[in-house]
Each structure stands twice: as C-alpha cells, then as structure tokens.
Amino acid sequence: MLIRLDTESRVPPFEQVRSQLAQQITDRALAVGAKLPTVRALAAELGLAVNTVARAYRELEEAGLVETRGKAGTFVSARGQFSRSRAQQAAQVYASTAVELGLSREEALEIVRAALEAG
Questions:
Q1: Can you give the pLDDT at residue 105?
Q2: Is the pTM of this model over 0.90?
Q3: Is 80 exposed, middle or buried, given 0-12, 13-18 or 19+ CB atoms closer than 10 A?
Q4: Tell me: the pLDDT tens digits for 85-94?
Q5: 65 and 92: one domain?
C-alpha cells in the first residue's frame, strides 16, 4: 500500500488518504481481507495527525469499503467488492438508457459528472 500526499494540493489530506485507499481497494491492489495499518501507524508514516487518518478510515467504513474489527484492526471489506459490482451494474443501465435516448457520449458523461459533483 502506497499513499502519496500532495502538500500543494487543495484537496485535504484526509480526502487524499481516503481516495487513494478507495482506489486501491476498487482496483483490487488491496484484496478483500487485507489488513490496513493502524490509524496511528499510518498517521506516523504519512506525518499526519491521528484524527486525519481516523476520518479517512471512518469514511471508508461508511462507504462499506473497510470494516473495523475492534482491536483486531481494520480490513478491506467484501462489501466493497459488492458495492463496486452494484456501481458497475448501475453504470451499464445508465449507458443503455443514454444510448436509447440518443445522447452523445460527451452528453452522457457530462450528466454523470454533474450528478457526482452534486453529491
């Protein structure tokens, strides 16, 4: 697992940690069941406050990508793979609908970008 922080970025450090871990999980670079470093260990490694890494882990857990098992630690969740599968299925349905409606690829992608930005 490799996390690179961009100190010049406007993206907050917790979000850089969260998004990089999420990407590694969805790319399967971190396999289901893989144990993540403790919050304290990762914070020390990255030179961040413990609360910064704890927030990233908390948001990953809320998204179903990781699960915390008490003192045993934090692990990549099998639910994360299920979530990715659901997102892929939804994307396929959307792509089919966009084609049926005659939207161009650019229009369809712009709709998705706007929806993601809206949250």
A1: 94
A2: no
A3: buried
A4: 778 889 999 9
A5: no
Taking the CB of residue 56, how many other CB atoms lie within 10 A of it? 27
Same domain assignment for residues 19 and 70: yes
Q: What angle do CA 111, 82, 70 make, to 5 degrees?
A: 120
CA dist 86 and 78 (Å) reads 13
**What one-character DSSP code corresponds to residue 72?**
G
Domain annotation covers residue 47 = yes
Residue 28, amino acid = R
CATH number for the domain including 23? 1.10.10.10
| CA dist., res. 89 & res. 76, Å (int) | 21
Residue 94: domain span: 82-118
Instruction: Count H helices and E strands in the chain, helices first.
Output: 5, 2
The pair of structure tokens assigned to 107 is 């229009």
